Amino acid sequence: MSRSPPPEMAARRQALHLRQKAVAYQAGVTPESLSRFERGRASEFGSRKLLAVLAVLGFELEFTESGQSGSLDELRRERAKS
User: Fold this and answer.
1) pLDDT tens-digit profile of 12-70?
2) For residue 48, is it within any domain?
3) Number of domains forming the structure of the chain
4) How confident is the model at residue 1 (pLDDT cuts 50, 70, 90)?
5) DSSP letter string over 45-64?
6) 27 and 52 Cβ atoms separated by less than 8 Å
7) Coil, strand or helix: which one is 44?
8) Domain range for residue 15?
9) Model pTM greater than 0.90?
10) What are the b/e assignments for 38-58, b being 16+ CB within 10 Å?
């Protein structure tokens, strides 16, 4: 079972008033695969696809050394508290 992508991706797409079909076309992926990815239902969504979609949405990946910003579970717990 795949994990859900950050909700910020779909929210960003919607804030930019972009349809999934338009983002998918610009990123070179199928609208169906983007839809499944946004819903956390993609069985495989490789790094090239992810980077292409992020570029269309104006996002970048940033790498941080482990332990510098807390674990993903810690960040989720903090977010749930607020």
Assistant:
1) 999 999 999 999 999 999 999 999 999 888 888 899 999 999 999 999 888 877 666 66
2) yes
3) 1
4) very low
5) --HHHHHHHHHHHT------
6) yes
7) coil
8) 7-81
9) no
10) beeebeebeeebbebbeebbe
